[in-house]
Amino acid sequence: MAYNLIALDVDGTLLTDEHKLPKDVKEAVREASTAGAQIVLCTGRGPMGAFPVLEELGLSGVLITHNGAATVRSEDRAILFQYDIDKKDLTDFIAYCKAQGIHYDLNTAFDMMVERMTDEAKAMYAHHKVEPIERSFDGSLPDGLVKFTLFGTKEQMDAVQADWANRPTNLQLIRSGDLFIDVQNPDASKGTALRRLAAEIGIGREKILAIGNYYNDISMLEFAGLGIAMSNSPDAVKDAADLTAGSNNEGGVAAALRTHAWTRE
């Protein structure tokens, strides 16, 4: 293998726009695993939304979830490390979402919680194969929060992003998809988590290949020895990568792995 660790984004990268895992992509990822590469899913999803993808691949191991805020092991569901949110820093975000009528959820490493559910949100969670816990946040917020996610139309998320561009906050806003904005600890990122994991298992960055498609993937694409952006990526993501692969709907990950993951004699 040319690379000992392969970091793969999920939505818009491994999965098609219909949230399907193409057969050819599945086979290519398993070929890389069989050849000796450690496969690490690096996703904005929480573990409960990422485990089904890992299981469909027929693999187990470490996952970098919540945009790097929680790194977990699938076999025993242990949290290897996480970056918590200070609960008091979420007060303004919750008030803003309520005033604007924007759907949001709160996440610990393994639990997702919502105050209410719309039909659009139900369909979105079903696609991601997660079932949020419905509860009130009027009292104290739960401990161990790692991510606060806003969900809505692209126009709504564009407006939120513009509105919060100059507002003071101790947290970072990450655009993790056209329909999502994640609010997290400023130290959390896929790149930070990948760097920390690589150091703990003794793999140099030159032996890491990363593939992604969105703004939340830029840090891991820049850290990896080889960063590959999907052709369905925004230009800023392509600019941050070393190479560009085919689109997620064309099974671009399969071709990228078969072209670049193996050492050529």
Describe the structure.
With about 260 residues, this protein is of the alpha/beta class. The chain folds into two domains: about 5-80 and about 190-260, HAD superfamily/HAD-like (Rossmann fold), CATH 3.40.50.1000; about 85-185, Hypothetical Protein, Haloacid Dehalogenase-like Hydrolase, Chain: A, domain 2 (2-Layer Sandwich), CATH 3.30.1240. It contains nine helices and 14 strands. The chain has helices at about 25-35, 45-55, 90-100, 120-125, 155-165, 190-200, 220-225, 235-240, 250-260, and strands at about 5-10, 40, 60-65, 70-75, 80, 105, 110-115, 135, 145-150, 170-175, 180-185, 210, 225-230, 245. The strands form two sheets. It has an eight-stranded mixed sheet with strand order 5-4-3-2-1-12-13-14, with helices on both faces. Strands 8-7-6-9-11-10 form a six-stranded mixed sheet, with helices on one face. Helix 1 runs parallel beside helix 9. The protein is globular and about 55 Å long.
Question: Nutshell version of this structure?
Answer:
The protein has 265 residues and is of the alpha/beta class. Helices cover 32% and strands 23% of the residues.
Q: Please tally the β strands and state the result.
A: 14
CATH topology of the largest domain: Rossmann fold
Please identify the structural class as seen in this structure: alpha/beta
Order of helices and strands: EHEHEEEHEEHEEHEEHEHEHEH
CATH class of the largest domain: Alpha Beta
Helix content: 25-40%
Organism: Paenibacillus nanensis
GO molecular function: magnesium ion binding; phosphatase activity
Protein name: HAD family phosphatase
